[in-house]
Each structure stands twice: as C-alpha cells, then as structure tokens.
Amino acid sequence: MASNSFGTHFRITTWGESHGPAIGVVIDGCPPGIEISAEKIQPALDLRAPGRNPFVTPRKESDQIQILSGVYEGKTTGHPISLLLWNQSAESGAYNHLKELYRPGHSNFTYLTKYGIFDSRGGGRSSGRETACRVAAGAVAQLVLDQFGIQPLAALVDAGGVSSIDPKSQIDWSDKDLVSRIDQSPIFCPNQELEDVIKNRIAEAIADGDSIGGTIEGIVFGMPIGLGDPVYEKLEANLAKAMLSIPATKGFEIGEGFDAAKMSGYDHNDRFIHEKIDGNERIGLETNHAGGTLGGISNGMPLRFTVAVKPTSSVRKLQRTIGLDGVEREFGLAEGAKHDPCIAVRAVPVVKAMTQLVLVDALLANQLISSFVTKGYKETNVCGL
Ligand SMILES: Cc1cc2nc3c(=O)[nH]c(=O)nc-3n(C[C@H](O)[C@H](O)[C@H](O)COP(=O)(O)O)c2cc1C
C-alpha cells in the first residue's frame, strides 16, 4: 500500500485527493543551497493547470504553490521541502451518480476490489490532479539540473492518430526557439501545422461526446555521459517506470523503440566518431538510434523517448456497465461535465516533470552531494570522465 513515493536519492512523496481540501508533495534529498522560490516553481504548474483553453478540462484551479518547509532565506536547506496546493474546484456533487457504478476505463473497479473503499469524488488518488504535485517537484528538480545545463523538453506529436509528421525526422528539436514555441502552444505542439490538425481532431471528439489518445515525444539536451547504473537501475528502465506511473499512459519507447526490432544491426548501430564540442575533442556518436543510452548509462547523446497516452475514459457517449449492486446499466458524463477530451495534452508537462525527477535522482546517485558542497556546482565533474 505504501506506493506514494518516487525516487531514491531525490525522493518525492505526494499526498491528497482530487476533491479533498488540498494536495501536496514532500521532497526529501534535495541538495542544500539552491536558490528557490514559489515564483520559480509556479510557471511549470501554470502550464499543467486545467481550464487554460477549450482543449483541456474546464475545471478551474489556480494552482498557486505554497512552500511550507525546507527553505531558508531563499535557499534550500537540504531538509524536506513541503509544497502545498489548495483544491478550489472541488464540487463533488457532479460525481454522485458515478459512485454507484464501475466506470469503464477508470480505476474504481480495481481500487474498490482491492481496498474495499474508494474516494469517488473526482477519482480520488487516481485523479490526474495528483500529477500537479509531480510537476511542482519536477520544477524543483530542474533547479538542480540547471546547474549542469541539462534541459528536458516534451511535446505533443500526435492525437487521435491524425499526425502526418514524423517527429524523429521532420522536427528540428535542436531549434533554440522550440521550448517557447511548445510552451506557448495551447496543446504543447512543436509545429503550427500539426497543432491545427490536432486541435481540429480534439474539437471533433468534444462534439462527438467522445475522447482521443495521444503521443508525447520526450527529449533531453545537455546530457552528460554516465547517468544511470547497470542492471536494475538502467536509466531507460527508470524512465519507463516513471512514464508508466503517469495515469492513462500505455506505452514507452526509447530511441527507435519497437521499430528497432525491424532494423538490421548495421542500420541500428550508432557509430563512434571524433567530434569537437566548444573546441574540445571527444568521442561522439554519428546517429542516435539507441535514444541516448548504452548499457543503461547515458552516452552523451540527447535522450529520446516516446510515451503513448490512452483516450480519456470519461466520455459523454452512453456506455454500458455494471452498478455496484450488480445490475447492468448505461451511463455517460453529463453535458458540460469537467474532463479532459485528450489527456495527452495535459500529460505533456507531467512527462517533462517525471523526466526531471529521474534525471536528478540519477545525478545524485553519482554521489555528488559532497562535491556540490566542497567544490561548488560549476567545478563538479558529473562522473569523473
Ligand atoms: C493530467 C491528467 C488528467 C486526467 N484527466 C482525466 C479526466 O478528465 N477524466 C478521466 O476519466 N481520466 C483522466 N485522467 C486519467 C485517469 O486518471 C486514469 O485513466 C485513471 O486513473 C485510470 O488509470 P489508468 O488509465 O492508468 O489505468 C487524467 C490523467 C492525467 C495525467
């Protein structure tokens, strides 16, 4: 039952229900001396917040973060950082009729069977609302990653299967303006043409009283060589677990992913080359089919992965199901009920946050804390290479 914590060295524990008074996260293991403020965390939460535009749930939450502990004179102390978000749009009445039945595609069947009790107000712990805490913790993790120039980004590259773009070859992910383009897009799209196609598809789903799934591309620039450990702490294994812990995710691929199974060894191999970075010679790779890891350890290439998100289970269309009393019945969400027509949109900042959490944990696993304190961040060599 103790399953609300993630990470080993930078460990987060989230708490709270969708329609309780508040939700929050406790971060244990954040290195001391990092400049931090609510203003530095807030922008990430604003991107994930509901009610931003017609393509996400109309639930209104201001998601103003409060820092309760672990910070002194604007810096982290090395002690638990506690972050709190009040729930403001917790009208549970709209969920009363859902209390009596098993919701297809939602978690109340398994939760009820396992625990014998379920907080049905907005899905309780299984609600997407819990992911706000991950985003807040991810923003804190990024303050550490910034010291090393590690920059994760995530973007929506398909929804409902309409994308005509190959995100691997047709988007210039190294374009410096891409981050602001994605953040300014109401659906986190890296490309205007793609954004228009996906928006139309989401609007169609809303009009049909239905929902659609989507695909998110994750990329991390500024990767050092050496993050991740062999065997059970492989970087891609931890990333996979992180991504599949996000509600509604159904698939994870790294590099060529499932397409690797169709390639020959000659074509899939990333060949070593001499390259110059900032005037320094180093051994690099010609291609990045592996997606940035070898043997579970980052190889200095950008990390590249893809996450599949299922269509939202809450739909207005009538669906057949079974009531808790065993009687078969039909139900659909009421007109105007608050839900995400395409969860993949609001899952984009969550994918970025989980990436930040995995990477900061991998950095700290390299036992850098003492080096942080004695040498300072700038002089710290990530893995002694
Ligand atoms: C940001 C976010 C928002 C979500 N919003 C909804 C929603 O409005 N309606 C819904 O049925 N599910 C929503 N979900 C998904 C459910 O939480 C999830 O499908 C459910 O807990 C069952 O878990 P599973 O899909 O991982 O098996 C959302 C998920 C995320 C990450």
Using only C-alpha atoms, the radius of gyration works out to 21 Å
**Mean pLDDT rating:** 90
| Biggest β-sheet description | 5 strands, antiparallel
Total strands: the figure is: 17
Please identify the structural class as seen in this structure: alpha+beta
Instruction: Tell me roughly what share of residues is in helical segments.
Output: 25-40%
Unreliable runs: none
CA-CA gap between termini: 41 Å
Strand order of the largest sheet: 1-2-3-7-4
SSE string = EEEHEEEEHHEHHHEHEHEEEEEEEHH
What coarse outline follows from CA principal-axis ratios? globular
Instruction: Work out the strand percent.
Output: 15-25%
Output the number of helix runs.
10
What binds here, in terms of ligands, is:
flavin mononucleotide
Describe it for me?
By secondary structure, the protein is of the alpha+beta class. Helix content is 27%, strand content 22%. It has helices at 38-48, 108-115, 131-145, 167-170, 178-184, 192-207, 235-244, 265-268, 343-365, 369-375; strands at 5-6, 11-16, 22-28, 66-69, 71-72, 75-76, 81-86, 151-159, 214-221, 249-254, 272-277, 280-285, 293-294, 297-298, 303-309, 319-322, 328-331. The strands form six sheets. The chain has a five-stranded antiparallel beta sheet with strand order 1-2-3-7-4, covered by helices on one side. Helix 7 (235-244) packs antiparallel against helix 9 (343-365). The structure holds flavin mononucleotide. Flavin mononucleotide binds at residues 57, 106-107, 123, 126-128, 131, 246-248, 310, 312-314, 339-340, 343, 346-347, 350.
